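Structure ticket #2291
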Amino acid sequence: MHGRMRKVKSLKNYKSSLILLVAITIGGVLGMVMGEKASIFAPFGLGAYFASVVGQLGSQILTGYIKVFILYLVVSIVYYFVFFTLYAYIGGKNDGQRKIW
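Resolution: structure written out below.
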């Protein structure tokens, strides 16, 4: 009885790894059999993978995306004002800067 419990516990610990291994194997076989037609199923696999990652990591992923998005906004706003001012100056000196701003 104790050996069976250990086996069941180890299967529970490696459940997601086993599922991933089976999915990769099935995907490889389908890719070899179907060839180019297998690329039709790629969006489904990508969507399922993304849903799985979000389900497991949840808020950790969301906070990472929010930080990157805020950084992107700040950098793009600074880029807009600095470089478009520089472009206007190169194009028309002070007159170009007055026209753009």
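Closing remark: The CA atoms of residues 86 and 93 lie 9 Å apart.
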